[in-house]
Amino acid sequence: MKKDIPAYSGTLRSHLLNIPESIYACSGILIFGRRIKSVVFSTDVAIIKNVNADAVIAVYPFTPQPVISQAIIQVSDVPVFVGVGGGITNGQRSVRLAAEAEHQGAFGVVVNAPIPPAVIAEMKARVDIPVIATIVSERQDIEERIAAGADILNISAAASTPALVSWVRERHPNFPIIATGGPTEESILATVQAGANAITYTPPTNGQLFSETMQKYRQSFD
Length: 222
Hints:
Elements: E1 29-31, E2 34-36, E3 38-41, H1 45-49, E4 55-58, H2 66-75, E5 80-83, H3 91-104, E6 108-111, H4 117-126, E7 131-135, H5 142-148, E8 152-155, H6 161-171, E9 177-180, H7 185-194, E10 198-201, H8 206-219
Parallel strand pairs: 3-4, 3-10, 4-5, 5-6, 6-7, 7-8, 8-9, 9-10
Antiparallel strand pairs: 1-2
């Protein structure tokens, strides 16, 4: 029987950003006792502070910097998974960044697709938080990454994500998978049904959201 859930949103926070309802269909992943189903993909602290996701994945296309991860962890009310490189930034630098992220309070570290499995193994020897390995293709050495100690797979293959999730799930029925959900309720549900345990949600940008607000302000003067 479906239960009614009491809710309070207040006045000033009634327009917070809500994740798509279809994400709740996934099982979630328990990390340090917290059940995580929705993961918002953002480094915008205003978005992070005003979205109801269970966690944050903070990765960006620049060399990872501890000052950025520290700022996001301090602002966030929920666990943060921190990007520590694996492409241009790699090797011992990524291992040191992972250790620093753990000390800052990160709930996990995310490594990019090109990272060698040997670096994952070194990372696991240094940190006690999950190492999340990004998977973008079935041609990656997924088995070696799991054998090296990757704790969670982060599957991100654009429109092909549901198919890749299904392919991995057939080979690893119980391995934890976070996957990109796509832009619609339908694409999110397809990814969940393919076997994802948690979904990464890409929110509208701060500029897009503020544009809608400004439009309402202008209309009020018409």
